[in-house]
RNA sequence: GCCCCCAUCGUCUAGUGGCCCAGGACGUCGGGUUCUCAGUCCGAAAACCGGGGUUCGACUCCCCGUGGGGGUACCA
């Protein structure tokens, strides 16, 4: 049997981190078995502009390297891949269900149903529709219609027995039929509802494994009923644990950003991202600039594989030690059996650590390629950069080492090399320049600098140590004010690297300018 | 209310009856190194939800609680 899995997003305009995890698992499973991964758009009764709401989702998946074999943009043998274009199949399924007696026309008004529902709840009993407005024959239907009632089609669920399913993640699960509602599958206007559409499409697209979030577990019996009634074979099911909020077990939601920001780790990730976005004129889309949404990471400069790798670990593990996987390794080692069944909370700190791991492993050239666009967008280098700018950037990347965690971090480490005058951080000035000794150290070092040859880290270090020794001061007493004088701030790459990259002229002029800020 | 699912350090997890007075990772804390930051090295604290069974023996199996989550729509 060919393995065919699918990811079926609604066109909402953004790609949710939990959705990515579901897509990733489906993709991994299909790739592992040499099968197909299909993208299907669940746009049943959607009124939005599908194209613009879909593009961010496709874009996000592409960026993450999750490629699909069939889908809305690439087509495929089972096209179309939009539910809104497959309604003929749904209508036919409804007719079949009606004909076989697995569904019926119902003319109850919503308020009448509510009444029954409330009564059942008050009695502490499960709600079971009385079917008093059900029309099992044409005459009855005509009579209700004559009363001005609108008819929908409902499933005629069994009221005894149970459904037993083997879920790849949860094992055996059982549902009593009598607890299942007579769900509506078709509205009075003829449009069909999600569960019906979903089942028909999964069958028509020959989906072999339905891998989806746990929130659908409770929906499975009604879907299985539809499938069985239509004479389909059931697909294999695997219900993934939910991706939960940081430090909680509640489903992660895009709408609760304000609440998540109370979590310190989450807030730090957000603020760090905002600082980067602000400098490249991004983050304006406040609605999608949110660590729950993939766009955020892309804009800030995370590595797509770091996100995939982190997400793979959310609910799945290979063994008790391995945490980092190449794409090939993950495809080879992934398995449904090793998916955990408990919800997993999204931990921005851990994502950060995985990102750190992969970013650190990149070469200077690779980092250069990722980071250059940020400098261009921030207006710090020309597009394309001059040879001199490119050289500076490379040296900064080299000198910055592990300090660069995401591509956007280059802005904070390279900016003072690329502008005429550094922006002076007032706190750093107050602490390191406005001191009794800063002026004398700066002057002494400047005097010595004229003769340093070559103007490279080793010679500069030697000169600084000699200056310190002559003044009877510690190295740190000179390093700090000099750093602030030439970079404007108190953190950055090693000072000798900074000096060498800036070059003699700029170092001297900045130090001289800084004299005016000394105490 | 009713139905379903779940339950190991703060977090992600390993553990399928003895290898576990529970292992790894992130984070946290303490210390070393360093010009700052980042890093790195060394070290530490930190968990089997509770109660009953089953068994020679339970983190592991069963039951009951408790807690958490999901579903219960003419949403997806």
Helix/sheet category:
alpha/beta
Query: How would you characterize the largest beta sheet?
Result: 4 strands, antiparallel
**What is the number of strand segments?**
12
Radius of gyration: 31 Å
Which spans of ≥5 residues are poorly predicted at pLDDT below 50? none
Strand content: 5-15%
Helix/strand layout:
Blueprint: E1 4-7, H1 17-32, E2 36-39, H2 50-63, H3 87-100, E3 103-106, H4 110-122, E4 134-135, H5 138-146, E5 152-155, E6 162-167, E7 171-176, E8 184-186, H6 194-204, E9 209-213, H7 220-229, E10 236-240, E11 243-244, H8 257-260, H9 264-279, H10 294-300, H11 304-312, H12 327-333, E12 344-345, H13 348-360, H14 364-377, H15 387-400, H16 410-418, H17 426-433, H18 438-449, H19 457-471, H20 475-487, H21 495-502, H22 504-514
Parallel strand pairs: 1-2, 9-10, 11-12
Antiparallel strand pairs: 3-4, 3-5, 5-8, 6-7
The structure holds one RNA strand of 76 nucleotides.
């Amino acid at each position: 049997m060919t393995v065919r899995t699918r990811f079926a997003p609604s066109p909402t305009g953004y790609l949710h981190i939990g959705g990515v995890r579901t897509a990733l698992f489906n993709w991994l499973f299909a790739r592992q078995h040499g099968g197909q991964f299909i993208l299907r758009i669940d746009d049943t009764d959607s009124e939005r502009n599908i194209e613009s709401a879909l593009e961010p989702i496709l874009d996000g998946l592409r960026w993450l390297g999750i490629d699909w074999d069939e889908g809305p943009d690439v087509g495929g043998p089972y096209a179309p891949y939009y539910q809104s274009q497959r309604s003929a199949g749904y209508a036919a399924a409804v007719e079949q269900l009606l004909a076989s007696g697995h569904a019926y026309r119902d003319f109850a008004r919503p308020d009448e149903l509510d009444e029954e529902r409330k009564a059942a709840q008050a009695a502490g009993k499960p709600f079971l529709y009385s079917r008093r407005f059900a029309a099992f024959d044409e005459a009855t239907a005509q009579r209700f219609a004559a009363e001005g009632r609108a008819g929908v089609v409902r499933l005629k669920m069994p009221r005894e027995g149970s459904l037993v399913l083997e879920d790849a993640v949860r094992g055996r699960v059982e549902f009593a039929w009598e607890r299942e509602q007579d769900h509506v599958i078709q509205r009075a206007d003829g449009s069909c509802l999600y569960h019906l559409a979903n089942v028909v499409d999964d069958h028509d697209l020959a989906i072999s494994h339905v891998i989806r979030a746990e929130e659908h577990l409770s929906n499975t019996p009604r879907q299985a009923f539809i499938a069985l009634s239509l004479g389909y074979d059931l697909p294999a099911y695997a219900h993934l644990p939910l991706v939960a909020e940081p430090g909680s077990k509640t489903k992660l939601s895009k709408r609760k950003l304000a609440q998540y920001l109370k979590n310190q780790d989450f807030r730090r990730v957000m603020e760090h991202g905002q600082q980067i976005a602000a400098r490249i004129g991004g983050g304006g889309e406040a609605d999608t600039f949110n660590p729950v949404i993939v766009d955020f990471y892309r804009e800030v400069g995370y590595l797509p594989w770091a996100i995939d790798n982190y997400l793979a670990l959310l609910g799945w593990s290979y063994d008790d030690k391995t945490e980092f996987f190449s794409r090939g390794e993950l495809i080879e080692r992934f398995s449904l059996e090793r998916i955990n069944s408990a919800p997993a909370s999204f931990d921005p700190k851990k994502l950060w650590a995985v990102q750190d791991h992969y970013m650190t492993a990149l070469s200077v050239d690779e980092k250069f390629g990722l980071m250059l666009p940020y400098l261009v967008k921030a207006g710090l280098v020309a597009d394309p950069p001059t040879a001199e700018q490119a050289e500076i950037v490379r040296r900064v990347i080299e000198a910055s080492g592990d300090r660069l965690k995401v591509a956007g971090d280059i802005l904070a480490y390279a900016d003072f090399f690329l502008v005429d005058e550094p922006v002076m951080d007032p706190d750093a000035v107050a602490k390191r320049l406005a001191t009794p000794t800063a002026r004398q150290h700066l002057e002494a070092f400047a005097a010595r600098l004229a003769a340093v040859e070559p103007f490279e880290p080793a010679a500069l270090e030697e000169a600084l140590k000699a200056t310190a020794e002559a003044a009877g001061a510690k190295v740190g007493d000179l390093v700090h004010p000099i750093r602030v004088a030439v970079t404007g701030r108190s953190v950055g790459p090693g000072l000798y690297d900074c000096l060498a990259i800036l070059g003699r002229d700029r170092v001297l002029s900045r130090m001289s300018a800084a004299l005016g800020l000394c105490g």
